[in-house]
Amino acid sequence: MTLSVRSGPQIPLLILLVLFSLVVSSPLLASGQAKPPYYQKISELTAAVEAEIIAIRRDIHAHPELAFQEHRTAALVADHFRKLGLEVRTGIGGTGVLGVLKGGLPGPILAMRGDMDALAITEETDLPFASREKVLVGGRETGLMHACGHDIHTAMLLGVASVLSRMKNQVPGTILFVAQPAEEWGDGANKMLQDGVFRDYKPEAIFAFHVDDTLKAGYAHYVPGYAGANCDTFFLTIKSEGCHGADPDQCVDPIVVGSHVVLALQAMISREIDVHDHTVITVGYFHAGSATNIIPEKAELRATVRSYGDEQRIRLKEKITRTISGICQSHGARYELDYQFGTPALYNHPELLTAILPTAELVLGGKDRLIEDRPEMGGEDFSHFAREIPGVMLSLGVVPPHLERTSVHSPTFIADEKAIGIGIRLMSSILMDYARKPARLRVRGFKK
Description:
alpha+beta; Aminopeptidase; Alpha-Beta Plaits; 2 domains; eight-stranded mixed sheet; four-stranded antiparallel sheet; elongated
């Protein structure tokens, strides 16, 4: 049977029907290109390993370890990598682990990072795999808990390695799986870099997830450019000879001087800092004295200083130092100031982010599931990697269906484990898609 087409050749109706069927049934990218065939393979392999990876996550959750003490977790990660046939290196930066997957096709070197450490928080959930671990911190016993989702990050790292190693003949180039210690201390990534984690394999780009305690599973946040803040600290001691509270003229009152410092720093932000330069100074520790009628010999202040970019953090140090010096001198107070630069601001490389957004939209199921967010003033030491290598961190929704939100760094933090499989599919697809891009379309090399 044929269909007559005016002023053209006759085309069999059966062929037209087949072509129509293919067009309708074929998933399309936002650009109109058909979904790559390996997406189906990634989905199948994710489904095959998901139960195992969730079980690993629960095991890690039940046995949390503090920064640079992740010996059990690191051994678990290294053993899993070895079973997958990856090249494995351990003890990097203390307890860090590197798994190297060499694909079967030519391509770039890319990396994925997952962090392993937990927090000194006593868990208050009713999960059957809740942590019961204890540790001494400052001479006091406290619980240990994965209250920031690092157990999930590590599990997804292992899951992506499991999926891509099972299809390595289709993987272009080399994928590095970086299991990092001590994110909560803000020094694990830096220690791994100093220890040469990328000495032999230098990735062109690095990717990571962080759990998002405001989004349901299946949704993700992204932030182009600065996504997290510099996390700097100062320790100030204001000194005095001390005297009786009934005779305050006989000595410098370090409490009064310290109070002026706290207020002056807040005024400085509102009057000396450009309103577009996001800045936070929080004096979270102010300790002085032991009696109502005694002016103490010292007052101790400790503060966190949050900002974006190297220039801003340097300017802030200068302004804070000048402010403290001026106030103390005007009161005749001696002082000691220890100002420390901590974790640098997290920078999501805009071009790299733009390159992976179509993949994220496709895997998550539409643009409405990938939401641009505002920068935060929290810290994330993935920033150390992203200063050396173009990097992107995506925030993956983990809020359980029955909750409006769940709070990280809380003893009651819980997560929807459905997010684990979603994260595995998403990152596996990102790595595969980006590795297949022509060199001219990739962000190349280490930043200088």
